[in-house]
UniProtKB/TrEMBL annotation, chain A:
The chain crosses the membrane at residues 39-66, 105-125, 137-158, 186-210, 236-257, 263-283, 295-316. It comes from the Bacteria. This is Multiple sugar transport system permease protein. PROSITE patterns: ABC_TM1. Belongs to the binding-protein-dependent transport system permease family. It is found in: Cell membrane. InterPro entries: ABC_transporter_permease, MetI-like, MetI-like_sf. Pfam families: BPD_transp_1. Residues 1-31 are annotated as: Disordered.
From TrEMBL, chain B:
Residues 68-257 form the ABC transmembrane type-1 domain. InterPro entries: MetI-like (IPR000515), MetI-like_sf (IPR035906). PROSITE patterns: ABC_TM1. It is found in: Cell membrane. Pfam families: BPD_transp_1 (PF00528). One of its GO terms (cellular component) is plasma membrane. Belongs to the binding-protein-dependent transport system permease family. Its main location: membrane. One of its GO terms (biological process) is transmembrane transport. It comes from the Bacteria. This is Multiple sugar transport system permease protein. PANTHER family: ABC TRANSPORTER PERMEASE PROTEIN MG189-RELATED, ABC TRANSPORTER PERMEASE PROTEIN MG189-RELATED-RELATED. Gene3D superfamilies: MetI-like (1.10.3720.10).
Amino acid sequence: MELRKENNENYVQPSQSPEPEEPPKKKKRSMKMQTKETWAGYLFISPMVIGTTVLVIIPILMAIIVSFTDWVFIQGIGEMSFVGLDNYQRLLSDDIFLRSVRNNAWLIAAVPVTMFFSLILAIIINKHVYMKSFFKIVYFLPYISSIVAIAIVFQLLFHPSYGPINEVLMTIGIENPPRWLADSSWALVSVIIITIWTSIGFNLIIYLAALQNISLELYEAADMDGANIFKKFRHITVPLVSPTTFFLLITGIVYSFKSFELIVVLTSGGPGYSTSVIVYYLYEQAFEYLRSGYSSAISIVLLLMLFIITAIQWYGQKKWVNY
Amino acid sequence: MKEKLTKITITVIMFIIGLVFLMPFLWMLSASLKSEIEVFAYPIQWIPNEWRWDNYAQVWSGDFPLYYWNSIKVTLATTFISVTVSTMAAYGFSKIQFTGRNIIFLLVLATFMIPAQAILVPQFMLYMYLDLFDTHLGLILLNSFSVLGTFMLRQFFVGIHDDYIASAKIDGAGQFTIFRKVAVPLVLPAISTYAILRFIWTWNDYQGPLIFLRSDHLSTIQVGIARFTSMSGEIYSLIMAGTMSAILPLLIIFFIGQKYVLEGIALGGVKG
Protein backbone atom coordinates (compact mmCIF):
# COMPACT_ATOMS: atom_id res chain seq x y z
CA MET A 1 0.00 0.00 0.00
CA GLU A 2 2.69 2.39 1.05
CA LEU A 3 4.74 1.50 -1.97
CA ARG A 4 1.86 1.91 -4.36
CA LYS A 5 1.08 5.31 -3.02
CA GLU A 6 4.61 6.49 -3.55
CA ASN A 7 4.57 5.07 -7.00
CA ASN A 8 1.37 6.85 -7.79
CA GLU A 9 2.68 10.12 -6.64
CA ASN A 10 5.75 9.94 -8.73
CA TYR A 11 4.50 8.60 -11.98
CA VAL A 12 0.97 7.52 -12.44
CA GLN A 13 -1.51 9.92 -10.95
CA PRO A 14 0.26 13.18 -10.52
CA SER A 15 -2.91 15.19 -10.19
CA GLN A 16 -3.56 13.54 -6.83
CA SER A 17 -3.72 16.14 -4.09
CA PRO A 18 -0.42 16.89 -2.36
CA GLU A 19 0.54 14.99 0.77
CA PRO A 20 -0.87 16.58 3.91
CA GLU A 21 2.48 16.37 5.74
CA GLU A 22 4.84 19.35 5.88
CA PRO A 23 2.31 21.95 4.75
CA PRO A 24 4.44 25.12 5.20
CA LYS A 25 7.27 23.97 3.00
CA LYS A 26 4.88 22.80 0.29
CA LYS A 27 3.08 26.10 0.22
CA LYS A 28 6.24 28.10 -0.20
CA ARG A 29 7.35 25.86 -3.01
CA SER A 30 4.02 26.09 -4.78
CA MET A 31 4.04 29.87 -4.62
CA LYS A 32 7.46 29.95 -6.18
CA MET A 33 6.23 27.51 -8.78
CA GLN A 34 3.23 29.71 -9.50
CA THR A 35 5.44 32.69 -10.30
CA LYS A 36 7.48 30.46 -12.54
CA GLU A 37 4.29 29.31 -14.24
CA THR A 38 3.16 32.87 -14.77
CA TRP A 39 6.43 33.79 -16.45
CA ALA A 40 6.31 30.66 -18.57
CA GLY A 41 2.75 31.56 -19.57
CA TYR A 42 3.69 35.07 -20.66
CA LEU A 43 6.66 33.70 -22.54
CA PHE A 44 4.52 31.26 -24.51
CA ILE A 45 1.88 33.77 -25.52
CA SER A 46 4.23 36.73 -26.04
CA PRO A 47 5.03 36.28 -29.77
CA MET A 48 1.33 36.07 -30.60
CA VAL A 49 0.35 38.93 -28.31
CA ILE A 50 3.15 41.23 -29.49
CA GLY A 51 2.42 40.44 -33.14
CA THR A 52 -1.30 41.07 -32.74
CA THR A 53 -0.69 44.28 -30.82
CA VAL A 54 1.71 45.73 -33.38
CA LEU A 55 -0.09 44.57 -36.52
CA VAL A 56 -3.75 44.82 -35.47
CA ILE A 57 -4.47 46.67 -32.24
CA ILE A 58 -2.16 49.65 -32.78
CA PRO A 59 -3.37 50.05 -36.39
CA ILE A 60 -6.98 50.15 -35.19
CA LEU A 61 -6.16 52.91 -32.75
CA MET A 62 -4.32 54.74 -35.53
CA ALA A 63 -7.32 54.32 -37.85
CA ILE A 64 -9.60 55.86 -35.23
CA ILE A 65 -7.35 58.91 -34.93
CA VAL A 66 -6.78 59.31 -38.69
CA SER A 67 -10.53 59.05 -39.32
CA PHE A 68 -10.99 62.44 -37.65
CA THR A 69 -8.42 64.14 -39.90
CA ASP A 70 -8.27 65.29 -43.50
CA TRP A 71 -4.92 63.60 -44.06
CA VAL A 72 -3.86 62.71 -47.58
CA PHE A 73 -1.27 59.98 -47.73
CA ILE A 74 1.42 61.70 -49.79
CA GLN A 75 1.58 64.62 -47.37
CA GLY A 76 3.83 64.33 -44.34
CA ILE A 77 2.32 63.54 -40.96
CA GLY A 78 2.79 67.22 -40.07
CA GLU A 79 0.14 68.23 -42.62
CA MET A 80 -2.49 66.26 -40.76
CA SER A 81 -5.22 68.42 -39.27
CA PHE A 82 -8.28 67.46 -37.31
CA VAL A 83 -11.64 68.00 -38.92
CA GLY A 84 -13.89 66.47 -36.31
CA LEU A 85 -16.75 64.42 -37.70
CA ASP A 86 -16.50 65.82 -41.24
CA ASN A 87 -15.46 62.51 -42.83
CA TYR A 88 -18.33 60.69 -41.19
CA GLN A 89 -20.80 63.33 -42.28
CA ARG A 90 -19.57 63.14 -45.85
CA LEU A 91 -20.02 59.37 -45.83
CA LEU A 92 -23.72 59.73 -45.15
CA SER A 93 -24.22 61.62 -48.40
CA ASP A 94 -21.68 59.68 -50.47
CA ASP A 95 -23.76 57.80 -53.02
CA ILE A 96 -20.98 55.38 -53.92
CA PHE A 97 -20.43 54.49 -50.29
CA LEU A 98 -24.15 53.90 -49.78
CA ARG A 99 -24.23 51.80 -52.93
CA SER A 100 -21.33 49.73 -51.59
CA VAL A 101 -23.22 49.16 -48.36
CA ARG A 102 -26.25 47.99 -50.35
CA ASN A 103 -24.08 45.65 -52.38
CA ASN A 104 -22.74 44.22 -49.15
CA ALA A 105 -26.30 43.56 -48.05
CA TRP A 106 -26.81 41.50 -51.23
CA LEU A 107 -23.73 39.47 -50.46
CA ILE A 108 -25.18 38.80 -46.99
CA ALA A 109 -28.42 37.66 -48.60
CA ALA A 110 -26.39 35.06 -50.49
CA VAL A 111 -25.20 33.46 -47.23
CA PRO A 112 -28.45 31.59 -46.40
CA VAL A 113 -28.73 30.50 -50.05
CA THR A 114 -25.26 28.95 -49.86
CA MET A 115 -26.15 27.29 -46.57
CA PHE A 116 -29.35 25.84 -48.02
CA PHE A 117 -27.57 24.25 -51.00
CA SER A 118 -24.81 23.00 -48.73
CA LEU A 119 -27.23 21.37 -46.31
CA ILE A 120 -29.10 19.59 -49.11
CA LEU A 121 -25.85 18.35 -50.64
CA ALA A 122 -24.57 17.31 -47.21
CA ILE A 123 -27.71 15.26 -46.53
CA ILE A 124 -27.40 13.50 -49.89
CA ILE A 125 -23.67 12.85 -49.51
CA ASN A 126 -24.06 11.71 -45.91
CA LYS A 127 -26.37 8.80 -46.53
CA HIS A 128 -27.43 8.38 -50.10
CA VAL A 129 -24.32 7.95 -52.21
CA TYR A 130 -21.32 5.69 -52.68
CA MET A 131 -17.79 7.21 -52.70
CA LYS A 132 -18.54 9.76 -49.99
CA SER A 133 -15.00 11.09 -49.69
CA PHE A 134 -14.77 11.58 -53.44
CA PHE A 135 -17.78 13.89 -53.35
CA LYS A 136 -16.40 15.78 -50.37
CA ILE A 137 -13.23 16.53 -52.33
CA VAL A 138 -15.14 17.57 -55.44
CA TYR A 139 -17.23 20.17 -53.65
CA PHE A 140 -14.34 21.39 -51.56
CA LEU A 141 -11.98 22.14 -54.46
CA PRO A 142 -13.19 25.69 -55.23
CA TYR A 143 -12.63 26.64 -51.61
CA ILE A 144 -8.90 25.87 -51.69
CA SER A 145 -8.26 27.36 -55.12
CA SER A 146 -6.77 30.78 -55.51
CA ILE A 147 -9.34 33.53 -55.89
CA VAL A 148 -7.17 35.16 -58.54
CA ALA A 149 -7.26 32.03 -60.71
CA ILE A 150 -11.01 31.64 -60.13
CA ALA A 151 -11.69 35.26 -61.03
CA ILE A 152 -9.69 34.99 -64.25
CA VAL A 153 -11.46 31.81 -65.35
CA PHE A 154 -14.90 33.25 -64.65
CA GLN A 155 -14.07 36.37 -66.63
CA LEU A 156 -13.73 34.08 -69.63
CA LEU A 157 -16.66 31.81 -68.77
CA PHE A 158 -18.93 34.84 -68.37
CA HIS A 159 -17.64 36.53 -71.51
CA PRO A 160 -20.78 38.14 -73.05
CA SER A 161 -20.28 37.22 -76.71
CA TYR A 162 -18.20 34.05 -76.86
CA GLY A 163 -18.02 32.77 -73.26
CA PRO A 164 -19.20 29.16 -72.85
CA ILE A 165 -21.96 30.09 -70.39
CA ASN A 166 -23.72 32.34 -72.89
CA GLU A 167 -23.10 29.90 -75.73
CA VAL A 168 -24.96 27.27 -73.75
CA LEU A 169 -27.76 29.69 -72.85
CA MET A 170 -28.19 30.63 -76.51
CA THR A 171 -28.24 26.99 -77.56
CA ILE A 172 -31.09 26.24 -75.19
CA GLY A 173 -33.07 29.08 -76.73
CA ILE A 174 -32.35 32.16 -74.67
CA GLU A 175 -31.83 34.76 -77.36
CA ASN A 176 -30.49 37.64 -75.33
CA PRO A 177 -28.53 36.16 -72.46
CA PRO A 178 -27.32 38.59 -69.78
CA ARG A 179 -24.02 40.32 -70.43
CA TRP A 180 -22.90 39.29 -66.93
CA LEU A 181 -19.82 41.18 -65.79
CA ALA A 182 -20.18 43.76 -68.54
CA ASP A 183 -23.69 44.74 -67.47
CA SER A 184 -24.12 46.82 -64.34
CA SER A 185 -27.39 45.11 -63.41
CA TRP A 186 -25.91 41.61 -63.76
CA ALA A 187 -22.36 42.08 -62.48
CA LEU A 188 -23.28 41.74 -58.82
CA VAL A 189 -25.33 38.63 -59.60
CA SER A 190 -22.23 37.15 -61.24
CA VAL A 191 -20.14 37.97 -58.17
CA ILE A 192 -22.76 36.31 -55.95
CA ILE A 193 -22.85 33.16 -58.12
CA ILE A 194 -19.07 32.83 -57.85
CA THR A 195 -19.16 33.48 -54.10
CA ILE A 196 -21.77 30.76 -53.59
CA TRP A 197 -19.75 28.39 -55.75
CA THR A 198 -16.56 28.92 -53.73
CA SER A 199 -18.15 28.68 -50.30
CA ILE A 200 -20.42 25.65 -50.70
CA GLY A 201 -17.49 23.32 -49.90
CA PHE A 202 -16.73 24.84 -46.52
CA ASN A 203 -20.40 24.87 -45.44
CA LEU A 204 -20.89 21.34 -46.73
CA ILE A 205 -18.01 19.88 -44.71
CA ILE A 206 -19.22 21.51 -41.51
CA TYR A 207 -22.80 20.36 -42.10
CA LEU A 208 -21.60 16.82 -42.80
CA ALA A 209 -19.86 16.75 -39.43
CA ALA A 210 -23.06 17.92 -37.75
CA LEU A 211 -25.21 15.35 -39.57
CA GLN A 212 -22.95 12.54 -38.45
CA ASN A 213 -23.79 13.40 -34.86
CA ILE A 214 -27.51 12.92 -35.30
CA SER A 215 -28.57 9.57 -33.96
CA LEU A 216 -30.05 7.18 -36.54
CA GLU A 217 -32.68 6.10 -34.04
CA LEU A 218 -34.47 9.40 -34.40
CA TYR A 219 -35.02 8.78 -38.10
CA GLU A 220 -36.03 5.18 -37.47
CA ALA A 221 -38.60 6.29 -34.93
CA ALA A 222 -39.91 8.85 -37.42
CA ASP A 223 -40.11 6.15 -40.09
CA MET A 224 -42.24 4.04 -37.80
CA ASP A 225 -44.56 6.97 -37.28
CA GLY A 226 -44.84 7.18 -41.06
CA ALA A 227 -43.13 10.54 -41.44
CA ASN A 228 -42.15 11.41 -45.00
CA ILE A 229 -38.80 12.73 -46.09
CA PHE A 230 -39.83 16.40 -45.82
CA LYS A 231 -41.27 15.96 -42.35
CA LYS A 232 -38.04 14.32 -41.21
CA PHE A 233 -36.05 17.15 -42.73
CA ARG A 234 -38.23 19.78 -41.10
CA HIS A 235 -38.62 18.20 -37.66
CA ILE A 236 -35.38 16.28 -37.11
CA THR A 237 -32.57 17.48 -39.34
CA VAL A 238 -33.15 21.23 -39.28
CA PRO A 239 -33.56 21.61 -35.51
CA LEU A 240 -30.64 19.31 -34.71
CA VAL A 241 -28.19 21.10 -36.97
CA SER A 242 -29.35 24.54 -35.80
CA PRO A 243 -26.19 25.27 -33.75
CA THR A 244 -24.17 24.59 -36.91
CA THR A 245 -26.52 26.73 -38.96
CA PHE A 246 -26.00 29.53 -36.51
CA PHE A 247 -22.23 29.14 -36.60
CA LEU A 248 -22.21 29.14 -40.40
CA LEU A 249 -24.46 32.17 -40.50
CA ILE A 250 -22.12 34.18 -38.27
CA THR A 251 -18.95 33.22 -40.12
CA GLY A 252 -20.70 33.61 -43.47
CA ILE A 253 -21.88 37.13 -42.71
CA VAL A 254 -18.55 38.20 -41.23
CA TYR A 255 -16.79 36.79 -44.31
CA SER A 256 -19.18 38.46 -46.71
CA PHE A 257 -17.72 41.76 -45.49
CA LYS A 258 -14.25 40.50 -46.31
CA SER A 259 -14.81 39.76 -50.00
CA PHE A 260 -12.17 41.91 -51.51
CA GLU A 261 -9.82 39.88 -53.67
CA LEU A 262 -12.57 38.49 -55.90
CA ILE A 263 -13.89 41.97 -56.59
CA VAL A 264 -10.48 43.55 -57.20
CA VAL A 265 -9.51 40.95 -59.79
CA LEU A 266 -12.92 40.25 -61.31
CA THR A 267 -14.52 43.66 -61.70
CA SER A 268 -12.52 46.38 -59.88
CA GLY A 269 -15.86 47.35 -58.40
CA GLY A 270 -17.35 48.06 -61.83
CA PRO A 271 -19.01 48.55 -64.11
CA GLY A 272 -19.94 51.92 -62.63
CA TYR A 273 -19.47 50.85 -58.98
CA SER A 274 -22.20 48.22 -59.42
CA THR A 275 -20.02 45.61 -57.63
CA SER A 276 -18.22 47.91 -55.23
CA VAL A 277 -18.42 46.74 -51.61
CA ILE A 278 -17.37 48.58 -48.47
CA VAL A 279 -13.87 47.09 -48.32
CA TYR A 280 -13.33 47.70 -52.03
CA TYR A 281 -14.41 51.34 -51.79
CA LEU A 282 -12.21 51.75 -48.74
CA TYR A 283 -9.25 50.33 -50.66
CA GLU A 284 -9.90 52.56 -53.64
CA GLN A 285 -10.15 55.68 -51.50
CA ALA A 286 -7.00 54.78 -49.60
CA PHE A 287 -4.68 53.51 -52.31
CA GLU A 288 -5.92 55.11 -55.51
CA TYR A 289 -7.12 58.50 -54.27
CA LEU A 290 -4.79 58.45 -51.23
CA ARG A 291 -7.53 59.87 -48.99
CA SER A 292 -6.30 58.31 -45.77
CA GLY A 293 -8.60 60.24 -43.44
CA TYR A 294 -11.72 59.48 -45.43
CA SER A 295 -10.89 55.81 -45.92
CA SER A 296 -10.16 55.44 -42.20
CA ALA A 297 -13.63 56.77 -41.46
CA ILE A 298 -15.00 54.02 -43.76
CA SER A 299 -12.94 51.46 -41.77
CA ILE A 300 -14.39 52.61 -38.49
CA VAL A 301 -17.96 52.57 -39.81
CA LEU A 302 -17.32 49.05 -41.12
CA LEU A 303 -16.03 47.93 -37.73
CA LEU A 304 -19.07 49.38 -36.00
CA MET A 305 -21.37 47.58 -38.43
CA LEU A 306 -19.61 44.27 -37.77
CA PHE A 307 -19.81 44.90 -34.06
CA ILE A 308 -23.56 45.53 -34.21
CA ILE A 309 -24.17 42.47 -36.40
CA THR A 310 -22.21 40.28 -34.01
CA ALA A 311 -24.14 41.65 -31.04
CA ILE A 312 -27.50 41.01 -32.74
CA GLN A 313 -26.42 37.52 -33.62
CA TRP A 314 -25.40 36.66 -30.08
CA TYR A 315 -28.69 37.95 -28.84
CA GLY A 316 -30.58 36.05 -31.52
CA GLN A 317 -28.77 32.85 -30.72
CA LYS A 318 -30.78 32.44 -27.53
CA LYS A 319 -33.99 32.63 -29.51
CA TRP A 320 -33.29 30.50 -32.57
CA VAL A 321 -30.95 27.75 -31.59
CA ASN A 322 -31.99 24.45 -30.03
CA TYR A 323 -29.12 22.90 -28.17
CA MET B 1 -31.95 -4.50 -53.80
CA LYS B 2 -34.27 -1.62 -54.55
CA GLU B 3 -32.44 0.46 -51.98
CA LYS B 4 -29.13 -0.32 -53.62
CA LEU B 5 -30.47 0.72 -57.00
CA THR B 6 -31.70 4.05 -55.63
CA LYS B 7 -28.30 4.65 -54.09
CA ILE B 8 -26.54 3.93 -57.38
CA THR B 9 -28.93 6.24 -59.25
CA ILE B 10 -28.35 9.05 -56.77
CA THR B 11 -24.58 8.52 -56.96
CA VAL B 12 -24.70 8.84 -60.75
CA ILE B 13 -26.83 12.00 -60.56
CA MET B 14 -24.48 13.48 -57.97
CA PHE B 15 -21.56 12.60 -60.17
CA ILE B 16 -23.06 14.59 -63.04
CA ILE B 17 -23.81 17.54 -60.74
CA GLY B 18 -20.23 17.29 -59.50
CA LEU B 19 -18.91 17.46 -63.06
CA VAL B 20 -20.94 20.61 -63.71
CA PHE B 21 -19.66 22.00 -60.42
CA LEU B 22 -16.06 21.39 -61.48
CA MET B 23 -16.67 22.73 -64.98
CA PRO B 24 -14.59 25.90 -64.43
CA PHE B 25 -11.53 23.80 -63.51
CA LEU B 26 -12.03 21.36 -66.37
CA TRP B 27 -12.47 24.27 -68.76
CA MET B 28 -9.29 25.89 -67.42
CA LEU B 29 -7.32 22.68 -67.87
CA SER B 30 -8.67 22.05 -71.33
CA ALA B 31 -8.16 25.65 -72.52
CA SER B 32 -4.61 25.67 -71.21
CA LEU B 33 -3.71 22.87 -73.64
CA LYS B 34 -5.44 24.26 -76.72
CA SER B 35 -4.39 26.52 -79.50
CA GLU B 36 -5.81 30.02 -79.15
CA ILE B 37 -8.42 29.54 -81.92
CA GLU B 38 -9.88 26.49 -80.22
CA VAL B 39 -10.37 28.14 -76.79
CA PHE B 40 -13.77 29.63 -77.52
CA ALA B 41 -14.86 27.10 -80.15
CA TYR B 42 -18.45 26.03 -79.66
CA PRO B 43 -19.66 23.38 -78.93
CA ILE B 44 -16.93 23.17 -76.33
CA GLN B 45 -14.22 20.80 -77.39
CA TRP B 46 -13.11 19.32 -74.07
CA ILE B 47 -10.28 17.27 -75.54
CA PRO B 48 -7.96 19.49 -77.60
CA ASN B 49 -7.38 18.48 -81.22
CA GLU B 50 -3.73 19.02 -80.81
CA TRP B 51 -2.14 19.07 -77.37
CA ARG B 52 -0.30 22.34 -76.96
CA TRP B 53 2.14 21.66 -74.15
CA ASP B 54 4.01 24.51 -75.67
CA ASN B 55 1.60 26.92 -73.90
CA TYR B 56 3.14 25.95 -70.58
CA ALA B 57 6.69 26.21 -71.93
CA GLN B 58 5.89 29.69 -73.20
CA VAL B 59 4.39 30.85 -69.90
CA TRP B 60 7.27 29.41 -67.94
CA SER B 61 9.92 31.02 -70.12
CA GLY B 62 9.00 34.43 -68.67
CA ASP B 63 9.06 35.57 -65.05
CA PHE B 64 7.02 32.65 -63.76
CA PRO B 65 9.91 30.71 -62.22
CA LEU B 66 10.86 33.81 -60.23
CA TYR B 67 7.28 34.41 -59.01
CA TYR B 68 7.04 30.74 -58.12
CA TRP B 69 10.27 30.85 -56.17
CA ASN B 70 9.11 33.98 -54.30
CA SER B 71 5.82 32.30 -53.45
CA ILE B 72 7.55 29.17 -52.20
CA LYS B 73 9.90 31.21 -50.00
CA VAL B 74 7.17 33.42 -48.53
CA THR B 75 4.71 30.57 -48.06
CA LEU B 76 7.15 28.20 -46.35
CA ALA B 77 8.51 30.90 -44.03
CA THR B 78 5.02 32.15 -43.13
CA THR B 79 3.76 28.64 -42.49
CA PHE B 80 6.72 27.82 -40.27
CA ILE B 81 6.54 31.01 -38.19
CA SER B 82 2.76 31.02 -37.97
CA VAL B 83 2.56 27.40 -36.85
CA THR B 84 5.24 27.98 -34.20
CA VAL B 85 3.67 31.19 -32.89
CA SER B 86 0.15 29.77 -32.83
CA THR B 87 1.13 26.47 -31.24
CA MET B 88 3.03 28.23 -28.48
CA ALA B 89 0.22 30.68 -27.82
CA ALA B 90 -2.39 27.93 -27.93
CA TYR B 91 -0.42 25.97 -25.33
CA GLY B 92 0.02 29.03 -23.11
CA PHE B 93 -3.67 29.91 -23.34
CA SER B 94 -4.81 26.42 -22.41
CA LYS B 95 -2.28 24.54 -20.31
CA ILE B 96 -0.52 27.15 -18.18
CA GLN B 97 -2.25 28.97 -15.34
CA PHE B 98 -1.40 32.64 -15.04
CA THR B 99 -3.07 35.89 -14.15
CA GLY B 100 -4.88 37.71 -16.93
CA ARG B 101 -4.90 34.68 -19.19
CA ASN B 102 -8.56 34.71 -20.12
CA ILE B 103 -8.76 38.46 -20.61
CA ILE B 104 -5.77 38.44 -22.96
CA PHE B 105 -7.19 35.48 -24.83
CA LEU B 106 -10.53 37.21 -25.34
CA LEU B 107 -8.78 40.34 -26.54
CA VAL B 108 -6.77 38.38 -29.10
CA LEU B 109 -9.89 36.46 -30.15
CA ALA B 110 -11.86 39.67 -30.65
CA THR B 111 -9.41 40.88 -33.29
CA PHE B 112 -10.58 37.99 -35.49
CA MET B 113 -13.71 39.93 -36.39
CA ILE B 114 -11.74 42.75 -37.96
CA PRO B 115 -11.48 42.59 -41.76
CA ALA B 116 -7.85 42.97 -42.83
CA GLN B 117 -8.87 45.73 -45.24
CA ALA B 118 -10.07 47.94 -42.39
CA ILE B 119 -6.52 48.40 -41.11
CA LEU B 120 -4.63 48.51 -44.39
CA VAL B 121 -3.90 52.24 -44.21
CA PRO B 122 -2.37 52.30 -40.74
CA GLN B 123 -0.54 49.04 -41.44
CA PHE B 124 0.86 50.62 -44.56
CA MET B 125 2.03 53.66 -42.57
CA LEU B 126 3.58 51.37 -39.99
CA TYR B 127 5.37 49.34 -42.65
CA MET B 128 6.81 52.49 -44.21
CA TYR B 129 8.02 53.62 -40.82
CA LEU B 130 9.54 50.23 -39.91
CA ASP B 131 11.13 49.80 -43.37
CA LEU B 132 9.10 46.64 -43.91
CA PHE B 133 7.33 47.92 -47.01
CA ASP B 134 8.35 46.12 -50.21
CA THR B 135 10.21 43.34 -48.38
CA HIS B 136 9.48 39.64 -48.12
CA LEU B 137 10.03 39.84 -44.37
CA GLY B 138 7.16 42.32 -44.07
CA LEU B 139 4.87 40.12 -46.12
CA ILE B 140 5.80 37.07 -44.05
CA LEU B 141 5.15 38.85 -40.75
CA LEU B 142 1.78 40.06 -42.02
CA ASN B 143 0.34 36.53 -42.06
CA SER B 144 2.32 35.07 -39.18
CA PHE B 145 0.07 35.93 -36.26
CA SER B 146 -3.09 34.00 -36.88
CA VAL B 147 -5.96 34.22 -34.44
CA LEU B 148 -7.70 31.36 -36.21
CA GLY B 149 -4.67 29.08 -35.93
CA THR B 150 -4.29 29.89 -32.25
CA PHE B 151 -7.97 29.35 -31.60
CA MET B 152 -8.09 26.06 -33.48
CA LEU B 153 -4.97 24.61 -31.83
CA ARG B 154 -6.13 25.75 -28.43
CA GLN B 155 -9.30 23.65 -28.89
CA PHE B 156 -7.07 20.63 -29.34
CA PHE B 157 -4.79 21.43 -26.39
CA VAL B 158 -7.85 21.82 -24.16
CA GLY B 159 -8.70 18.25 -25.12
CA ILE B 160 -5.46 16.90 -23.61
CA HIS B 161 -5.92 15.65 -20.10
CA ASP B 162 -4.06 17.76 -17.54
CA ASP B 163 -2.64 14.61 -15.98
CA TYR B 164 -0.17 14.19 -18.83
CA ILE B 165 1.27 17.59 -18.14
CA ALA B 166 1.15 17.36 -14.37
CA SER B 167 2.96 14.03 -14.41
CA ALA B 168 5.75 15.47 -16.54
CA LYS B 169 5.96 18.37 -14.10
CA ILE B 170 6.37 16.01 -11.16
CA ASP B 171 9.22 14.41 -13.07
CA GLY B 172 10.85 17.80 -12.90
CA ALA B 173 10.32 18.89 -16.48
CA GLY B 174 10.06 22.61 -17.20
CA GLN B 175 7.21 24.05 -19.27
CA PHE B 176 9.31 24.21 -22.39
CA THR B 177 10.29 20.56 -22.18
CA ILE B 178 6.69 19.56 -21.50
CA PHE B 179 5.57 21.60 -24.47
CA ARG B 180 8.08 19.99 -26.81
CA LYS B 181 8.09 16.41 -25.50
CA VAL B 182 4.54 15.92 -24.27
CA ALA B 183 2.04 18.45 -25.56
CA VAL B 184 3.15 18.99 -29.16
CA PRO B 185 3.38 15.27 -30.02
CA LEU B 186 -0.15 14.81 -28.72
CA VAL B 187 -1.66 17.44 -31.00
CA LEU B 188 0.58 16.77 -34.00
CA PRO B 189 -2.35 15.87 -36.32
CA ALA B 190 -4.00 19.22 -35.52
CA ILE B 191 -0.72 21.03 -36.12
CA SER B 192 -0.37 19.34 -39.53
CA THR B 193 -3.91 20.36 -40.39
CA TYR B 194 -3.22 23.96 -39.53
CA ALA B 195 0.11 23.89 -41.37
CA ILE B 196 -1.57 22.70 -44.58
CA LEU B 197 -4.34 25.28 -44.26
CA ARG B 198 -1.88 28.06 -43.56
CA PHE B 199 0.14 26.96 -46.60
CA ILE B 200 -2.95 27.09 -48.81
CA TRP B 201 -4.11 30.45 -47.47
CA THR B 202 -0.69 32.05 -47.80
CA TRP B 203 -0.10 30.66 -51.27
CA ASN B 204 -3.45 32.11 -52.35
CA ASP B 205 -2.97 35.47 -50.65
CA TYR B 206 -3.33 38.25 -53.19
CA GLN B 207 -4.12 41.26 -51.06
CA GLY B 208 -0.90 41.14 -49.01
CA PRO B 209 1.56 41.21 -51.90
CA LEU B 210 -0.70 43.57 -53.87
CA ILE B 211 -0.42 46.25 -51.22
CA PHE B 212 2.79 45.59 -49.33
CA LEU B 213 5.11 44.79 -52.25
CA ARG B 214 5.99 47.07 -55.11
CA SER B 215 9.03 45.64 -56.90
CA ASP B 216 8.29 43.23 -59.69
CA HIS B 217 11.17 40.93 -58.74
CA LEU B 218 9.58 40.34 -55.31
CA SER B 219 6.11 39.47 -56.65
CA THR B 220 4.46 36.23 -55.66
CA ILE B 221 2.61 33.98 -58.07
CA GLN B 222 -0.86 35.46 -57.38
CA VAL B 223 0.24 38.98 -58.23
CA GLY B 224 2.27 37.47 -61.06
CA ILE B 225 -0.69 35.84 -62.80
CA ALA B 226 -2.91 38.87 -62.29
CA ARG B 227 -0.22 41.01 -63.93
CA PHE B 228 0.43 38.43 -66.64
CA THR B 229 -3.29 38.40 -67.45
CA SER B 230 -3.52 42.13 -67.87
CA MET B 231 -0.32 42.30 -69.92
CA SER B 232 -0.56 39.24 -72.17
CA GLY B 233 -3.12 40.95 -74.39
CA GLU B 234 -5.97 38.46 -74.16
CA ILE B 235 -4.11 35.35 -75.23
CA TYR B 236 -6.45 33.14 -73.28
CA SER B 237 -4.76 29.80 -73.78
CA LEU B 238 -1.59 31.20 -72.21
CA ILE B 239 -3.55 32.86 -69.41
CA MET B 240 -5.20 29.53 -68.60
CA ALA B 241 -1.80 27.80 -68.60
CA GLY B 242 -0.66 30.46 -66.13
CA THR B 243 -3.62 30.07 -63.76
CA MET B 244 -3.36 26.30 -64.00
CA SER B 245 0.31 26.52 -62.96
CA ALA B 246 -0.66 28.72 -60.02
CA ILE B 247 -3.22 26.32 -58.55
CA LEU B 248 -1.46 23.06 -59.36
CA PRO B 249 0.83 22.92 -56.28
CA LEU B 250 -2.21 23.50 -54.08
CA LEU B 251 -4.20 20.74 -55.71
CA ILE B 252 -1.29 18.36 -55.11
CA ILE B 253 -0.90 19.38 -51.48
CA PHE B 254 -4.62 19.16 -50.96
CA PHE B 255 -4.85 15.67 -52.44
CA ILE B 256 -2.00 14.47 -50.24
CA GLY B 257 -3.33 16.08 -47.08
CA GLN B 258 -7.07 16.07 -47.79
CA LYS B 259 -7.88 13.83 -44.86
CA TYR B 260 -6.20 16.25 -42.46
CA VAL B 261 -7.72 19.30 -44.09
CA LEU B 262 -11.30 18.04 -44.22
CA GLU B 263 -11.19 16.63 -40.69
CA GLY B 264 -9.62 19.78 -39.35
CA ILE B 265 -12.21 21.99 -41.02
CA ALA B 266 -15.00 19.80 -39.68
CA LEU B 267 -13.62 19.81 -36.14
CA GLY B 268 -12.43 23.34 -35.75
CA GLY B 269 -14.77 25.03 -38.16
CA VAL B 270 -11.89 27.17 -39.38
CA LYS B 271 -12.14 29.46 -42.33
CA GLY B 272 -9.37 31.48 -43.93
